[in-house]
Every structure is written in C-alpha cells, then in structure tokens.
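User: Could you go from structure to sequence for me? I need the amino acid at each position, not a summary. Structure tokens:
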C-alpha cells in the first residue's frame, strides 16, 4: 500500500510486440509504476506481457507493474479506463507511452492527455537495428519525445448522464422525456427556490443540450413540442469515454 502523500511516476503502456519500446523509456524516465494495458492475460501477446513485466521488475530500482485489461481496439474504452484510474488517484504524475501496442490505444493516450494531467510521449525505434526479444523488438532510437497537447474541458455530470440516456434509448427522445430523466437523477431542478418552474427546467436542459451539441454528440429534428433528440455516431463513441464519471471504480491498490 502506498502512503497517500507519496507522489508516484505512473506510466501507461499498451502491450505490443516491441518490448524494449516499453521498458527502456520507463527506465529512462524513472517510472515507479507501469500500468500495462492489454486485452487479455491469455491473448497472443502474453509472452511479450510476461517479458515486459520481468524486465521492469528486475530493474534497479525495481519498477512495479500492474496489468489493466481493456478493449485496446476501442479508443473510447481505453480513454475511459485511463480516466477512471487517473481521477481515482489524482495525486500522482501520469505518463502515457503512445508508441507501443494497438494504434487505437496510442490515440487514446493522446486524447487522455487533453482531458487529464497525463503526459503522452513517443519512442522511436531503429528498424535497421538488431532485434532481441522477438522479430519486432527493434532497439530504441533516441530519448522519449513528449507530445504537446492542449486542454479540453470535460463534460459535466448532467451532460454525461443525458448522453448516456440518449444512447440507451436507441432512437429519438423528446425534450420532455430528457428533462424528466435528468430531474429524476437530481441533475435539473431548483437552484434557490423550492420549486423549479417549467421555464427554468427548459433553460437548464438547453444548457445541457448546448454542451452536447458543441461536441457534436447529438442531432435533433423538429421544433417546440415536436423536437426530438438523438445521440449522433460521435455521441455513441463519446459516451464510451465518460462512463467512469457515472460509475465510480475502486482505486488500483498499487497506486495507494
């Protein structure tokens, strides 16, 4: 168990065929913990996973590891997993190796760097060099290159709840139904008085819909009482990224 006051250097890395591309930058950047993201403990990369764990844990000083099982071919799922881990233990310093494993997992690492305090970095390899631990395990070429990112404000809980509701319905929803759902969740309602007027609820719902529309997460048809709102294709993908905001997950033991 890590003391809550301890600030760890925590690296994410998707497991792939290039073992040294994970191990060497973790050592160079003095990682305390490496979270190895993989689809399954028994998939075709289990040899590479085992070798990476062995080399990291034999480092001096020892680098502890933890395996995170995740759908690495779904960028939204990886972003959601990173978000759940980072927000449950925000006191640590986080890095993401965006040069190993599935490209979708690498893209997710860059996106995560725009939402949370996660520093993505890229590691080049020498494809003319000699492989060691496997046919694709080329030597690292040069130091890790940090990727500049810009901050994207996260959606608030009401907007994420509304998006989840729209996705779960699988078709157009009236604004009245959406307001009822958000009100039942305690996310719309009175601010100062004991009762919120219909006009106030409409205004609050408009704010939520404005947030979702600015992300391209919804589409709408009709006006007034005929207005129908649906989650867009982008909204369905976005819904996958933010599930951790609605369902809190336990902090990883290795992070204290």
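Assistant: Here is the amino acid at each position, in order:
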């Amino acid at each position: 168990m890590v003391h809550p006051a301890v600030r760890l250097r925590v690296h994410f890395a998707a497991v792939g065929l290039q073992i040294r591309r994970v191990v060497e930058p973790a050592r160079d950047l003095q990682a305390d913990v490496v979270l190895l993201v993989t689809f399954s403990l028994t998939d075709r990369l289990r040899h590479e996973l085992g070798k990476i764990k062995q080399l990291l844990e034999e480092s001096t000083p020892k680098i502890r590891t933890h395996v995170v099982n995740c759908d690495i071919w779904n960028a939204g799922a990886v972003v959601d997993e990173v978000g759940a881990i980072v927000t449950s233990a925000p006191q640590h310093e986080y890095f993401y190796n965006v040069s190993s494993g599935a490209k979708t997992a690498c893209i997710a690492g860059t996106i995560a760097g725009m939402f949370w305090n996660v520093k993505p970095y890229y590691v080049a390899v020498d494809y003319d060099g000699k492989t060691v631990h496997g046919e694709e395990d080329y030597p690292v070429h040069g130091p890790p290159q940090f990727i500049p990112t810009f901050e994207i404000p996260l959606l608030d809980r009401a907007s994420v709840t509304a998006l989840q509701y729209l996705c779960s319905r699988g078709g157009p929803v009236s604004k009245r139904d959406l307001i009822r759902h958000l009100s039942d969740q305690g996310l719309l309602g009175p601010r100062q008085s004991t009762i919120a007027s219909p006009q106030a609820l409409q205004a609050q719902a408009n704010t939520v819909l404005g947030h979702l529309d600015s992300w391209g997460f919804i589409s709408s048809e009709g006006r007034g009482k005929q207005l129908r709102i649906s989650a867009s294709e982008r909204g369905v993908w976005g819904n996958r990224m933010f599930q951790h905001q609605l369902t809190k997950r336990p902090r990883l033991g290795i992070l204290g």
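One structural detail worth keeping in mind: The mean pLDDT is 94.
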